[in-house]
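Write out this protein's structure.
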Amino acid sequence: MDLDRPDGGKRGGRRNAEQGGLTEAGINLPGGPTDGPVFDLGFTVPPDHTPNTLLTVELLWHIDQTGCTVNLRTNYDSITRAGRLPAISTSFSIPVTSVTSPNNTTIRTSVNVGTATFGLAPGDAVILGFFRSSDSDTCGQTVRITGIRVLYT
């Protein structure tokens, strides 16, 4: 898996996510009144993936706040295969997460990845873009993504 290097640059009018260290380790997505920083991840569908089935991408994250909601969103996915045009989608999102657990409790958020255009197959390249949307996000503290995994059959 390859994560877009969060170097503080700008893309689409928004900053790239920040990397933290020590107690702030992970990909940091600050809260605020406008849409937050973005980050991308890319991976190749594993050779033992069952063709035409969905993959699930899980984000493990925490926030030093409770009694609020976080709106992590996907802003696009791109699936490419040799000999085909890329299948690009912007029509799916991650449900808003209510933060009711104690501060800094790890939360698991997942999104299914697939394409109606030509299905997923081993060797396909997948790129996903994520950001923290200000729409329905009421937490002011930084979301720290500390783990990402891809589940498949």
